[in-house]
Structure formats: structure tokens, C-alpha cells
Known about the structure:
Elements: H1 5-21, H2 38-50, H3 52-76, H4 79-112, H5 118-129, H6 131-144, H7 155-188, H8 194-231, H9 236-265, H10 271-281, H11 291-347, H12 354-379, H13 384-401, H14 403-418, E1 426-429, E2 432-439, E3 443-447, E4 453-457, H15 458-462, E5 466-468, E6 474-476, E7 479-483, H16 489-502, E8 513-519, E9 524-529, E10 531-533, H17 537-555, H18 573-580
Antiparallel strand pairs: 1-2, 1-5, 2-3, 3-4, 6-10, 7-9, 8-9
Amino acid sequence: xxxxxxxxxxxxxxxxxxxxxxxxxxxxxxxxxxxxxxxxxxxxxxxxxxxxxxxxxxxxxxxxxxxxxxxxxxxxxxxxxxxxxxxxxxxxxxxxxxxxxxxxxxxxxxxxxxxxxxxxxxxxxxxxxxxxxxxxxxxxxxxxxxxxxxxxxxxxxxxxxxxxxxxxxxxxxxxxxxxxxxxxxxxxxxxxxxxxxxxxxxxxxxxxxxxxxxxxxxxxxxxxxxxxxxxxxxxxxxxxxxxxxxxxxxxxxxxxxxxxxxxxxxxxxxxxxxxxxxxxxxxxxxxxxxxxxxxxxxxxxxxxxxxxxxxxxxxxxxxxxxxxxxxxxxxxxxxxxxxxxxxxxxxxxxxxxxxxxxxxxxxxxxxxxxxxxxxxxxxxxxxxxxxxxxxxxxxxxxxxxxxxxxxxxxxxxxxxxxxxxxxxxxxxxxxxxxxxxxxxxxxxxxxxxxxxxxxxxxxxxxxxxxxxxxxxxxxxxxxxxxxxxxxxxxxxxxxxxxxxxxxxxxxxxxxxxxxxxxxxxxxxxxxxxxxxxxxxxxxxxxxxxxxxxxxxxxxxxxxxxxxxxxxxxxxxxxxxxxxxx
Length: 581
């Protein structure tokens, strides 16, 4: 008869469970407890239910019965039903394995507290003593269900198969973690675990080696699939397979990382595997700070950089030199063109503002530099199509976000082109009067006559009435002087004419105007309108006003102030009587 190690291990587990099922559930009472009343039995059950050790044993017995039931059903099932029962059996065995460790952990805590648990301690020792075979059986069952999907499957079928595969691998990793806990507890109870630990180390080493090989094969498959996608970019199935294969590599690496965590607890050598996990996932973890892992990574990176320098270094250096030469040449060209444009604008008959002149020169220079950079990038092998598309998208987003600023910019351009005013002009715009001290494409700075600095957005100025006070070289000073109705009109007109013509800043051409303008309520008003240079406006205004007052006083010409005659009419007694009645 052929010997089957798996069947022998399962037979030992069944014997272990049968022994557990025969253990007494409670230790209290006397020999007559079996014949006690139903109420006494219920009370004992309640006491047992409150004991964590008894609850743990009860869970083990329940799990054993569940396993027996699943084994019977699996024996009578076929096809997919049998596969489903086998999967449930694997989980049930793993749960039983973990429940045994939990029970031993509870006993260890009670033992540390010096409780009287000699019987429970022996039960824990028996359970832990059988865990070597239990672990071998559980891991063997799980490994028998590991199936790597075939490459001929569709992307959807591969994704489903990978999901089932990683569910099994997760159970395997869980079994390893429980095995480590079982080893720790066995040492606490003084058991010899050398053989069990050696078996676990062997299983972990095999699992890590298999995972490493699978990752390497899957990585090569991903590279091959990506090459196929490059050749046939419109194949949706190929793209889906690339995504599925990439996820497969990542999940394999995560699974290997879980195995390595268990191996690290046993102080096994895992440096090379950690490096592979890092390369597959691209995630920096605390493992990278391990000296051996970090040194291997540095060596790998250094070798990669050196290979790039050896293979692509000369070509890269040539392209960098070509980039610098092209940018430098366009820089010199921009300077030459800048001087040419500046000279052309200076010689032209266009009446351009200084700001507009500088803006045109700057735009020409910057456009040439941008063209030079684009040409240099194209020589470096950079595709300009996606770059220009990206710039367009960014420009649209920025333009939408800065629409108010762009409105000011457009208004600034219109102001520069049509030049309703320039720096140094006195203007009245957007409700502000003052001297323009600074202009830009976004705003205009006005210095008021009381020395306040006001910054006006250009769209506010361009959208309103602009009054340029100093746009013309000549200005007319408008003055009005009133005299009394009793004064001599001809004499007054002669005096005003003499005052105006005697002022050295009043221009002869156009000639000043002195005329009787209106007969007002309280005065006869004369207008005085001399012409002056724009810079002499206020000097002439103030000088003539002062001179008129002084000369009128000398000539006896009065300057009336508003008067009103009030007439009172007394009422007659008859009127009083009528009003009082």
C-alpha cells in the first residue's frame, strides 16, 4: 500500500480533534452532578459560557463538527460544487488552526497570572504539539489549489482567475502568520519546536522563491504586452491585458512582501527579495533603510546610470551643446532685432507713446527667444505638438481665471494705440482728476493735486469719459467778473483789457477776449478769456484775478454781492377784523 503524507496528516488532525471533543467541559461538582436537575445543568452551562477557556474549547469543537460535515459533503459532490466545498474546507481548517493558537494564548495569559489551570495547560500543550502536522496539512491543501492563469485567456477571464489565485495566496500567508504565533507559544510552554521551525523556514523559503520567479515572469509578460500595444495601439484587448498584467505584478509583489514580513520575524535573509518588491511596486518602505537592501539599490541605480552614460552619454552631450548653441544664437539675434525695431520706431512718423514703444520692442525680443527655445527643444527630440497643446490648455484656464485682468490688458492696449493721454498729462477720468505718473497694460497711476496716488484699472478708464486737460499746447483761461449796475461799462471793459494785455504770459495770438457777457440779478458780468501756454494756466488765472480786485478798488469800480429788496405792506384795521372774524 502506498503511503500518502497528506492523508496521514489529516488522520492525525482528526485524532487530535476527537481527543479534544472528549475533554471535560467543566471541572466543578461531585460524582452526583450527572444526576442533577435541569436547572443545575443550565447554571453550570452558564458558568462555562462565562469562562473564556471553555468558550475557546467550545469553538474548537464546533469547528471540528463543521469540518466533518464539509468533508462528507465534499466527498459526495462533483464539479464546481466540489471545488466550492474544498475552498470552504480550506478556510475551516485554517480557522481551526487559528482557534487552537487563540486557546493556547489564553492559557498562557492565565498561566502568567498563576491561575490553577493545569488541565487547560495540558490541553494547550497537546494542541500546540500537533500544530506542526496541522500547519503542513493546511498549507499543503492551499498550495494544491494554486493555479496560475494561462496567457490564452481573455483579459476578463485572467482578472477573475487572478482574483481566485490571490484569495488562496492570502490564506497561505495567514497560515504562515498563525504558524509563527504557534512557535512563539510553543516556546513559552517549553516545547521543542526545532523541527517545526525548520519546516516553516523551508516553506517560507520555497514560497519566497516561487513568488520571486512569478514576479520576474509576470514583469517580462508586462514588457512584452506593452511592446505589442506600441505596435498595435488601437487594440483594446491588448491594453486591457496590460492593465491586468500590471495589477498581477503589483499583487504578487504585495503577497511576497507579506511572506517577507513573516520571514523577518524569523530573522531570515530577505534583502534580495525586498529589492525585487521595491522594483516591482515602486513604493519606498522602511525596508529600504536596511543596510543590505539600501546598498543593493545603490549599486543597481549606479550601474543603471553608468550604463546610460556609456550608451547614451555622447549623444546626450551633443544634444545639450546643440541646445545651448541654438538658444545663444537666438539670444544674439533678438538683441540685433531689438535695436533694429527701436531705430525704426524712432525714425518713423508714428506718434507712439514711450510705453507702447517699449512694449513693441519687448514683444519682438520675447517672440524671437520663444522661437529659439522651441527650435532647440525640437533638436533635443522633444515633441512640440503635445507641448503646444498643453500650453494652449493652460492658456485657456489662465485666461478664464484672469478674465478681469485680461479686460484691463485689452483696455491698456487700446489706450496705448489711441493715446487719449500720456505720462505727465493732467486728466479727468473715472471720477479722478490729477496728473498721470505711470502707465502699464493693466492700470494707470494718477497723482492728484493734493498729492494722493490713485491706481485706476484701465477698463474703468477706457469705459468712461476721458478728459485730457493738458493734451493741447495752448489753453484758454475763462474768468468772469461782475460789477455794479451803477458802474461805467466802457470804463470797466477798458480796465479789464489793460489788465489782460499787460500780463507777460498772455498770448497775443489768439487775442484775448473781454466782453460784457450778461446782465445778472445783482451784477453786470464781463467775461475775460486770455490764451496762454498750458504750463502758465494757473499763474495767469491767479495773477489776473488779483490784479482785477486791486485795479477795481483803485478805479472805484465796485464788485457787488447778491442783494434782495424786501417790501413791507401794513394791513388796514378792516383787514384785521376780517382776518380775525
